[in-house]
Write a structure and sequence with these properties.
The protein is an alpha+beta fold and about 140 residues long. It is about 25% helix and about 30% strand. The protein is built from three helices and six strands; from the N terminus they run E-E-E-H-E-H-H-E-E. Helix 1 packs across helix 3.
Length: about 140
């Protein structure tokens, strides 16, 4: 079984847990929760009658970032050819974390099932994230 979908829009990484100093409780930032919900919604749009994956999994994530407007024409071409990669926030591990946390106990039972992981940050014409989850 393979699930392949994309989430258009700005790529958001997993935010650090925050501490409410008044109550002493730890919480996930709203921006992170909203993005996790967005990932779930785009998954459900493409696979409304999905079956939860139970075997070992390979996850591939490609995060596309918009080319800065101030970039020279020669650099833009290199960016689109993937000769220049984005070295800006969010960090690649935070991108992985937000995607896997949104799919955990949803598309698959637990993220311990993931035994292969491919992640890449590249420049594209529009910001989006492509996600592929497959049993192998």
């Amino acid at each position: 079984m393979i699930y392949e979908f994309e989430v258009p829009g700005k790529v958001i990484g997993k935010g650090r847990p925050r501490l409410n100093t008044y109550t002493g409780s730890v919480y996930t930032p709203t921006k992170t929760k909203d993005y996790e919900t967005l990932v779930e919604q785009y998954f459900l749009l493409k696979y409304p009658r999905f079956k939860m994956l139970e075997g070992r999994l390979k996850v591939s994530i490609i995060a596309y970032f918009e080319i800065p407007k101030s970039t020279k024409k020669s650099d833009k071409d290199k960016m689109l050819e993937n000769s220049i990669s984005p070295t800006k926030k969010p960090d690649i591990d935070n991108i992985v974390k937000v995607v896997l946390d949104s799919m955990n106990k949803f598309a698959f039972k637990d993220d311990t099932q993931i035994t292969k992981l491919e992640v890449e940050k590249i420049y594209g014409l529009e910001e989006k994230i492509e996600i592929k989850i497959e049993e192998y």
